[in-house]
Design brief:
By secondary structure, the protein is of the alpha/beta class. It has a domain of 199 residues: P-loop containing nucleotide triphosphate hydrolases (Rossmann fold), CATH 3.40.50. It contains eleven helices and twelve strands. Helix 3 packs across helix 4 and helix 5 runs parallel beside helix 6. The two termini are 28 Å apart. The model has no long low-confidence stretch (mean pLDDT 90).
Length: 342
């Protein structure tokens, strides 16, 4: 497969100001040296606890937030080096579906006007042609043509998210970043939206970054899964490999939290203790060492790199103990196939 997106050392922090002169007194490290590649046509799932930096990473990738360090290469071009006009054109190829479908839609604009905006912004078509394109988009995402003249408040959450998806695919992008697109929806509606995303991927050849805290949803839709903790990526593997045999203690703890029909099948990993540290003052070394039941002194001093396992080059883990052989593989109690996930 061909890498369509290459991210290396991407970091984003937010300054904290204080004092009489409003000087910078601290920084919130939301994304800390994240690196990965995205293959054309795949779905990369991104999981982690709330506040781990998933959404900030998504916004930094398309420069809704300007990164502080690192590179983002889209089809070989440095996304961070683009000027305003070039960035506008590049964003046509990399779109985003937001978590809250209502907040992301202008309540004063009809659905038709909302979906015409991308075409107007890029100078595409006459008014009649744009209307025709919008009607085709509505049909493609499963909405009736009378939605054209209605307003966002007249639709359910699932229907509004379909509008958000229609807007994201309007310019025929190659990459779509889905930031928790089903977390605000009922379970039955979640499955409809997920199936719509998979159908559009097959029809249009889309590449997805799918962000969620729901491990079952991520397993269902993803080809590979990346796990984030406190701004850093701690594990990256093919979906079946990661869910069958997670290697990082944090990933193991996340999968242990999945509810199982048979409680006797629950694994033996130690539960997480304590709260997530503040990104304003993250721990030294491995950020996870304050909650890890296996941590040693080295974990407190040295930042573990995200590197390949000796027995599986497609599985990358950021843990000293895993690579030294002190922490063996831990079978997951979750279902053996992602097709079994809801």
């Amino acid at each position: 497969m061909t890498a369509i997106l290459e991210v290396e050392g991407l970091s984003k922090y937010f300054p904290v100001y204080g004092g009489v002169f409003r000087r910078e007194v601290a920084r919130v490290y939301a994304v800390d040296s994240v690196s990965f590649t995205l293959e054309q046509g795949e779905t990369l799932g991104l999981v982690g606890e709330s506040g781990c930096g998933k959404s900030t990473l998504a916004r930094a990738l398309i420069r809704l937030y300007e990164p502080n360090a690192g590179t983002v290469r889209f089809k070989g071009k440095d996304f961070r080096a683009l000027d305003r006009d070039a960035l506008k054109q590049a964003r046509a190829d990399m779109q985003m579906v937001f978590q809250d479908p209502y907040a992301s839609l202008n309540p004063r604009m009809s659905i038709g006007r909302i979906l015409e905006e991308p075409f107007k912004l890029h100078g595409i078509g006459t008014p009649e042609e744009r209307r025709s394109k919008v009607l085709a988009l509505l049909e493609r995402v499963g909405l009736r043509s009378d939605a054209y003249d209605r307003f966002p408040h007249e639709f359910s959450g699932g229907q509004r998210q379909r509008v958000g998806i229609a807007r994201a695919i309007a310019l025929e992008p190659e990459v779509v970043i889905c930031d928790e697109p089903v977390s605000a929806l009922d379970v039955s509606i979640q499955s409809q939206v997920l199936n719509l995303l998979r159908e559009l991927q097959r029809e249009l050849g889309l590449t997805y970054i799918f962000i969620s805290h729901d491990l079952a949803v991520v397993r269902y839709i993803s080809d590979r899964v990346a796990v984030m903790y406190l701004g850093r990526m701690v594990e990256l593997a093919e979906t079946d490999d990661l869910y069958r045999a997670p290697r990082h203690p944090y990933t193991q703890a996340l999968l242990e939290s999945l509810p199982l029909p048979d409680p006797s099948q629950r694994g033996k990993a130690a539960p997480l203790e304590g709260d997530v540290p503040s990104p304003r003052n993250p721990p030294s070394g491995c950020h996870f060492h304050t909650r890890c039941p296996h941590a040693v002194d080295r974990c407190k001093r040295e930042v573990p790199p995200l590197v390949e396992l000796k027995d599986n080059p497609k599985h990358r883990v950021a843990c000293h103990l895993v690579h030294s052989g002190e922490l063996p593989a831990h079978p997951s109690p979750s279902p053996s196939s992602k097709e079994e996930s809801p």
